[in-house]
Amino acid sequence: MTETPQHRPLRTRRLLLRPLTVADAPALFPVFSDPDSMRWFGELHRTQADTEALFHDYTVGPYAAGARQWAILPAGGGAPVGSLSLHRMQQGMCQTGYILVPAARGRGLASEALAAVLTHAFLELGLHRVEAKVDPDNIASLRTVERLGFVREARLRRSFPARDEWRDEVVFGLLAREWLDRAPEVAGRIRAAGASP
């Protein structure tokens, strides 16, 4: 995806988030083809071409106009350790999703990356609401969005197809005014967990 002021790299203390490209597929195919990782995310990728096709669709293909996709990299350099998106952007609202390789989990990196993207979404993109849908059994992701101040709003029954079954989704919402009011408090929580917004 071509970098624009609305889709640019974002930096945190430990991370660089840069626009995702199809060239990131080899580094991230292992997580998209991992059954344990994809039980929360969606369709298992059988080949690297599946990952390339997904990245193409959301960066230069049919969904690109309504999405911003970032590759998550260590600030000091190296291969991507995950990806994060804002998608289904319309009328000031969007959804967010993220995935990390197993070795990058448990260190607050998802919270750190998402905090940077939320600030960008509300201050630079002018969005007024970001929504997250989380599997109720995905405890780590539930904690991530709750730590960042998302409000639990609903539970959708059997609404998400994953691994040949229909899964429930918990719907969370975060408004711009809530994020901007809570940003210093959220930053403190992330630092306490070993990360930085």
From TrEMBL:
Domain (N-acetyltransferase): residue spans on this chain: 15-177
Keyword Acyltransferase set for record: yes
InterPro entries: Acyl_CoA_acyltransferase (IPR016181), GNAT_dom (IPR000182), Ribosomal_N-acetyltransferase (IPR051908)
Keywords: Acyltransferase, Transferase
Top-level class of the enzyme under EC nomenclature: transferase
Pfam families documented for this protein: Acetyltransf_3
Example GO molecular function: acyltransferase activity
EC number of this enzyme: 2.3.-.-
Signal peptide: none
Protein name, per record: GNAT family N-acetyltransferase
Organism of this sequence: Rhodocista pekingensis
